[in-house]
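Researcher: Structure prediction, please.
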Amino acid sequence: MRQKITNQITEGVIWQQLLLFFFPILFGTFFQQLYNTVDAIVVGRFVGKEALAAVGGPTGTLINLLVGFFVGLSSGATVIISQFYGAGRGDKVCYAVHTSAAFSLLCGAGIMAVGIFGAPYALTAMGTPDDILSYAILYMRIYFLGTIPNLIYNMGSGILRAAGDSKRPLLFLITGCVTNIVLDVVFVVILDLGVAGAAAATILSQTASAIFVLVVLTRTREMYQLVFSKLRLDRRMLKRIIRIGLPAGLQSVMYSLSNVIIQSSVNSLGTDTIAAWTAYGKIDCVFWMIVNAFGISVTTFVGQNYGAGKMDRVKKGIRQCLAMTVVSSVALSFFLYEFGFYIFEIFTTDGAVLEKGMEILRFLVPSFVTYVTVEIYSGALRGIGDSWLPMVLTMVGICGLRVLWIVAAVPLRRTITTVVFSYPLTWSVTTVLFIIYFHWFSRLGKKGPCQKA
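Model: Predicted structure follows.
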């Protein structure tokens, strides 16, 4: 019965299947944001501002660089498994699942060692203030003790999503979120363990999520069943996974580095602007949750249908996903443009910060729609294993051009609008590059170009 349900991706009503996949991913991202927000609130309120800065500042940047790289890399496994699963190739799915799991263990051990031993050097090199350095080192070292469970959860969730199951990864994430909240209160508020307690709560909740994923993968009778005795690295399968996933991993790193440069420019504009930009970042994360969820949905949809040889469904799915994402983006832009002021007031009541924040918001939100094509087309191309050239287009069109704009234009007119203009500028240029590549040069285009929605 389960097989019949998951195969609806290759048989059912396209827009319904995309939405059924989209919403669990969206809610999962929401709970991930809630997870981080509660951590910050508990530490900030019950430990102090130094601990809050340590947990949410330089440590977050370093963790995102290392773990984000692996999450991008593991997307290659999701694509490979979705293709073989859609084609009904149980033997290949088995190889991919066990290679992916073994790869997670090896990467987890490597990242754990780098994080634990490299934390003091990396934090010092970033210029971390002395009053938070000891907190930051302690938090990172405990956090990286839980790297292996963290990567196992991410890889296991990717395997389930590749098979069309986005609901159980969501349930596991919600469980981990609730566990983290409870343990935060127990360790930080009741037992007064400070930053160490917050880090311990995080790794224990991640371990719980990893255990749930492993239980599902080992007990299933479907072709993606995990058998511990079969854990090994298949060289050919590993090469395929890395070939597809490495661009996404590198892209994650490059995005992080370009955003660091933008943040440096914002920092030079004063406290009010920094506060406004920080609050805006909490508001526009709703847009990123939506487009990322649609991007992941179209990757799995395209992967399974491409593996099943159903190119007509592939093209229709891309068009319909693009249309739904455009409508969602325009609706969100209108809502934020009209009512964003009231949302800003949740974060601050300072008049100068509110004024600067609305200047940023009303400049950027109308341009959200210019990014949609990049996300959907890159997700679709990743679904057929075409990830290297899209990565190059993104690196040049977004990261490279963004850095060039900051270096060349901002010194001539040092205002927040000059800084944030780098976003719609680079989104628009990259969209044009993707449209040209997708319709005239990609494998999807050569098989019969998709028409724009």
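Model: The two ends are 34 Å apart (CA to CA).
Researcher: Thanks, that helps.
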